Amino acid sequence: MSQRYYSNIYWHFTGSPKGVDWSIARCPKDITDQGAILDDSVAAETLSLILASKSLWATCTEKIAEGVETEKFCCVTDIPLKDLPSHSPYYGKVAIGFKAEAIHKHFIPVLYLPAQNLPAIEKLIPNRKISKMISDLLSSSGSFAEQQAMKLMPLAYQHTESVKELDKNEIGGFYSNFVKITNFDSDPQNTYYREREWRGIGNFNFDYGDIEAVVAPSSVLPAIKEKLEELGIKNINVVSWEFVEEA
Questions:
Q1: β-pairing, 197-201 with 204-205?
Q2: pLDDT tens for residues 144-169?
Q3: Residue 112 φ/ψ, nearest 5 degrees
């Protein structure tokens, strides 16, 4: 049997902590150092809202570099069941697990890049507006459009003030939405690398058949089971957090 360092169930934690400035968080320790407040009851209520709406809402954005921010996204992780407790100090103890087939249609794994090398990384982020202009020109017919596109290409990765003045919010391309800057460190508190995040741009609308499991503390499971019954959601695994911790 091969080593399992990933899961075929993709987990979304519903206990996003309050009072965290995510723009300055580059590792899990940055979350706890800001005095993150977690509440299992609130996380269970959020899970119920997700189930009722059949949607993960894209409410998060992330700062990649100065003037570069992702579009709004939602996220899941493919860490194995036995490793879920490593997430709980930062994201709570309530999670919904989705089948791989549903996630692969909407989400892309995050590319983790070292904060220690941020100056070099910034030079690799394309200017979104210029990249779109190049794409539009190349999709047009005629050699003149192609020539203009070729002239713009050297500017796509220049980050001079004159280029940034085009529109600071347009710096970065499609792939920059899936970049996560973090520290790289042997201590898991000091790096996001171990989180194995997958990210989807925009809301993720799902069917109940896409759900594999729900995990939550025994104190809030009765309310969650009641919601599942109310919505007619059957044939999914409902697992107590205590079982996961002991497994």
A1: unpaired
A2: 667 776 766 666 555 544 444 444 44
A3: -85, 130
Residue 238 DSSP one-character state: E
Calculate mean pLDDT across residues 124-135: 64
Alpha carbon of 217 to those of 7, 35, 128, 207, 225: distances in Å? Answer: 21, 22, 44, 24, 12
**Quick one: which of 128, 141, 6 has its CA closest to 68?**
128
- CB 62: neighbour CB atoms within 10 A? 21
Q: How far, in Å, are 100, 125, 141, 164 from residue 171 at the CA level? A: 32, 7, 27, 7
DSSP 104-126: HTT-EE-EEEEGGGHHHHHTTSP
Signed CA dihedral, 165, 168, 174, 179: sign only: positive
Q: Cα–Cα distance between 18 and 34 in angstroms, integer?
A: 10
Provide the whole-model pTM: 0.79
Contact 216, 236 (CB under 8 A): no
Give the rounded percent of residues in the chain with a pLDDT score beyond 90: 52
Helix or strand holding residue 229 (H, E): helix 221-231
**Contacts of residue 119, Cβ cutoff 8 Å, sequence gap at least 6:** none
Domain ranges, ordered by start, for the chain: 9-109+193-246, 126-169
Q: Output 206 or 117, whichever has higher pLDDT.
A: 206
What is the CB-side half-sphere exposure of residue 230 using CA atoms within 13 A? 10
Q: Nearest-5° angle of CA 188, CA 37, CA 23?
A: 60
Tokens of 47: 């899970």
E strand or H helix at 213, and its extent?
A: strand 211-216
